[in-house]
């Protein structure tokens, strides 16, 4: 295998691709099966980075937005439940006060019979 002194200004992926081509020419195409996918990955990495970064950013942005919407919905539901709880408590207290007033006045007993 020869080193490539004339390719000093090339990127790493271009030098690696040139080295693989040089090796296959010298050794008669006896490349390892893992080398072509490796070279394809090195050549595709800049493209994946350019396309993947905005894609991942969009997914994260959508996830954060969805998270904020879910939080808002949970807070609103909690407020709704608190309002309903307050209404039911007020009705129960009013009903309890009416029941106590009736017992104090002697109009009804616990079983519904009149006191006389």
Plain-language structure description:
Helices cover 75% and strands 0% of the residues. It has 116 residues and is an all-alpha fold. The radius of gyration is 40 Å and the shape is rod-shaped. The model has no long low-confidence stretch (mean pLDDT 75).
Which short descriptors sum up this protein?
single chain, 116 residues, mainly alpha, 2 helices, rod-shaped
Please write out the topology:
Layout lengths: L11 H16 L7 H71 L11
Helix pairs in contact: 1-2
Structural class: mainly alpha
Instruction: List the total number of helices.
Output: 2
Gap between N and C termini? 118 Å
Please give the radius of gyration in angstroms. Answer: 40 Å
Mean pLDDT across the residues is 75
Shape: rod-shaped
Low-pLDDT ranges: none
The oligomeric status of these chains comes to single chain
- Main β-sheet, in a few words? none
Strand content: under 5%
Task: Return the string of H and E elements.
Answer: HH
Helix content estimate = over 70%
What is the number of strand segments? 0
């Amino acid at each position: 295998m020869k080193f490539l002194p004339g390719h000093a200004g090339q990127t790493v992926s271009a030098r690696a691709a040139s080295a693989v081509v040089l090796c296959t020419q010298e050794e008669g195409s006896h490349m390892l099966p893992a080398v072509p996918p490796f070279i394809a990955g090195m050549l595709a990495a800049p493209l994946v980075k350019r396309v993947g970064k905005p894609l991942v950013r969009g997914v994260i942005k959508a996830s954060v937005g969805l998270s904020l919407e879910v939080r808002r919905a949970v807070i609103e539901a909690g407020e709704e439940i608190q309002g309903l709880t307050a209404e039911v408590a007020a009705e129960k207290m009013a009903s309890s006060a009416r029941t106590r007033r009736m017992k104090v006045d002697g109009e009804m007993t616990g079983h519904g019979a009149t006191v006389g």
